[in-house]
Amino acid sequence: MSSAKRKSSGASSAKTKRHLGTPTPHTQAQTHPAGHSYVRSHIVNLFEPILGSADADLVKCTPTFVDVAAYEKARVEASENVTSGAVFATSAAANPVQLIDTIHFGKWRIGTWYAAPYPEEYCQQQTLYLCEFCLKYMKSAFMTKRHKLKCPLTSPPGNEIYRDGVVSIFEVDGKNNKIYCQNLCLLAKMFLDHKTLYYDVEPFLFYVMTERDEEGFHFVGYFSKEKRSSSNFNLSCILTLPIHQRKGYGQLLIDFSYLLSKKEEKPGSPEKPLSDLGLLSYRSYWRIAVLQELRKMNNETVSIEDIASKTFMTHADIVATLKNLDMLVKDSRDDYVICYNANLVDEVLSKYKSKKYPTIKPNLLRWIRYEAPKKTTS
Ligand SMILES: CC(=O)SCCNC(=O)CCNC(=O)[C@H](O)C(C)(C)COP(=O)(O)OP(=O)(O)OC[C@H]1O[C@@H](n2cnc3c(N)ncnc32)[C@H](O)[C@@H]1OP(=O)(O)O
């Protein structure tokens, strides 16, 4: 390394220091732990009063002359490649490979299903650490531990609008809690193949379901909903964390989305396409909802409109459900009629009841309908 290079290296340190408003620096040659000589500036003094000398010592971070030479060599080679027209952007670099196969979430380790567009440096981690309350993502257990000491949240950052025993549901506005909702979408993407919403969260409300204990409100699942849906979707995206699946929480969230539709007096349906698991869950929910209404009507003549007015399901979803149950048949006049065996309906309903899944109790909802703020005219 030429002395000219050494000088310029020292000068750049000096620039940094002056920018930080510190006295004129002194540079001195030192020996790197690896045995290479390097230029040490007194920038370390800036941090000493705060961190203590051991932590403030930047020796290990300071590039050695060997590092600088390696960088310069790589830079020259790179610029030669550019001028000779070599193609750099391999598909892997342009579209980094997702390595995250596990997330640490509270006390859980959860295997991921799909890639999520976390920033590239996080995608290169095999394990990602998430704060279970604010959903911040981190690279190490150490960072998570430190974060836990200062994280102000012990529940989702919204209004608790429903509580039944240990189960609560919070309404979180994508506009007021943008980072939380973006982190929530990234988390959901790891379990959902076709999800595309990550960053534009402002037009959505997020309904987050939690289980409460002495530590706080632990995330179980959520669904998102457009504040104004032109297609009358009452749910955009739903997730139950894999550690809580098959316990009836998906049905609970779906039921809650229909309870909101009832309050809004607007029938609704989930946004399409549904994932395979989404379809299974919705078919299961719709089947039980329709059968329950048929049972309540107790052999009276019943129309699709009657079922719709009680369930707030769309006519299309009711017809599809009845077809799946083989309950829609043509009569002698070639008209469709609903035809069912009451004993079979009872059997299905009592089997469902025996699972003892949690159910939504409408009287526990404390909620006022979202109203978009009025535009002020100047
Ligand atoms: C509009 C959309 O967002 S579509 C996208 C849907 N979301 C996803 O695919 C994300 C990943 N999946 C999930 O988060 C969950 O599987 C959900 C939200 C779809 C369902 O959540 P869960 O809490 O497991 O639902 P829940 O316990 O209420 O199960 C309801 C029923 O759905 C069906 N079901 C749910 N998961 C499965 C499964 N893996 N295999 C077979 N049937 C299933 C069953 O009929 C089940 O009832 P059962 O357990 O009594 O047999």
Automatic annotation (TrEMBL):
It is found in: Nucleus. Residues 95-369 form the MYST-type HAT domain. It catalyses: L-lysyl-[protein] + acetyl-CoA = N(6)-acetyl-L-lysyl-[protein] + CoA + H(+). Its EC number is 2.3.1.48. One of its GO terms (biological process) is regulation of transcription by RNA polymerase II. It is an enzyme of class 2 (transferase). GO terms for molecular function: chromatin binding; histone acetyltransferase activity; transcription coregulator activity; zinc ion binding. The active site is at residue 271. Residues 1-34 are annotated as: Disordered. Residues 22-34 have a biased composition (Low complexity). PROSITE patterns: MYST_HAT. It comes from the Eukaryota. Keywords: Acetylation, Chromatin regulator, Metal-binding, Nucleus, Transferase, Zinc, Zinc-finger. Pfam families: MOZ_SAS, zf-MYST. InterPro entries: Acyl_CoA_acyltransferase, HAT_MYST-type, MYST_HAT, WH-like_DNA-bd_sf, Zf-MYST. Catalytic component of the NuA4 histone acetyltransferase (HAT) complex which is involved in epigenetic transcriptional activation of selected genes principally by acetylation of nucleosomal histones H4, H3, H2B, H2A and H2A variant H2A.Z. Acetylates histone H4 to form H4K5ac, H4K8ac, H4K12ac and H4K16ac, histone H3 to form H3K14ac, and histone H2A to form H2AK4ac and H2AK7ac. The NuA4 complex is involved in the DNA damage response and is required for chromosome segregation. The NuA4 complex plays a direct role in repair of DNA double-strand breaks (DSBs) through homologous recombination. Belongs to the MYST (SAS/MOZ) family. This is Histone acetyltransferase.
